[in-house]
Amino acid sequence: MTLDNDEIADRLPDDWGREGDEIVRTYEFDDYLTGVDFATECAEIANEEFHHPELIIGFRTVEVRLTSHEAGGITDDDIRLAKQFDDEY
Predict the structure, then answer these.
(1) What are the tens digits of pLDDT across the range 51-83?
(2) Of 34, 47, 63, 67, which has fewest CB within 10 angstroms of its CB?
């Protein structure tokens, strides 16, 4: 079940934003390989949770986009995974 706008606003972790039906955060790193390592950790967590984000690796950034396609929007799974990624950062 998707979350309504108020639930998303109340539960969205710090440093995360919302773009339509996605929650988004850009993490910053001192160098490229540290960002790649972080993206790998995120991918492993996501695979264990069977909930796969879009990861965009830049020179010293990793942008993470989460949504629940099967539900048609943002769900508890997206919020939970965002918090797990923050714990890795």
Answers:
(1) 999 999 999 999 999 999 989 999 999 999 999
(2) 47
CA nearest neighbour of 54 among 79, 86, 22: 22
3-state helix, strand, coil split of the chain in percent (to 5) is 45, 25, 35
Range of the domain at 21: 5-88
How many domains does one find in the chain?
A: 1
Q: Which residue has the tokens 């790193």?
A: 29
CATH of residue 33's domain is: 3.30.1360.20
Cα separation, 20 vs 89, whole angstroms: 25
The Cα-based distances of 31 to 27, 37, 61 in angstroms read 12, 10, 8
